[in-house]
Write the structure tokens for this entry.
Amino acid sequence: MACEGEIYLGKYSRVLRWIDAEKGINIENGCNLGVSATSNGVIKIGKGCIFKRLFGKEITTQHEGELNKGVVSEAVIKGSIKTYNNFFVKGNVEIHGNLFGEKDVFVSKNVIVKGDIFSQGKVVLEDNVMVGEEGKIKSVIGKKGVTIKGPVKIYGYVMTEGEGRVE
């Protein structure tokens, strides 16, 4: 389905192939988004949704509370990180580069990654994680899966060959 305006998917809707909206997509809880959901605007995703690919100027999950935009960082990393084991980023951390993992990558509460996140394993994003910056397209790619827990904001693209899930 393609739309020049906005698309609204009610609870438990199922997309067989793809959806694309020029102005935005609002997705209620429990939806199956098929192969691809894309928008030139904002994509808002409810809990319990599954996906393969998402692309939008902004991708947010709909949960109680607001994203914390004014996080005071305990650590600022000016560069990229590459790891060969499972990797956990916890606390108020801001990464001004990319995050690459050969295994699973877990990004915990209040972390900002201004670059791309790529994992040969799974990527798990928790409460108040932000990937990218407004106006700059970045990617979150978890080859074996992407799980989004709590409110997150991603500027750009999310893809997995496994299962993508919003919890």
Observations:
- The chain is about 0% helix and 55% strand.
- The CA atoms of residues 9 and 113 lie 29 Å apart.
- The mean pLDDT is 89.
- The first strand starts at residue 2 and ends at 3.
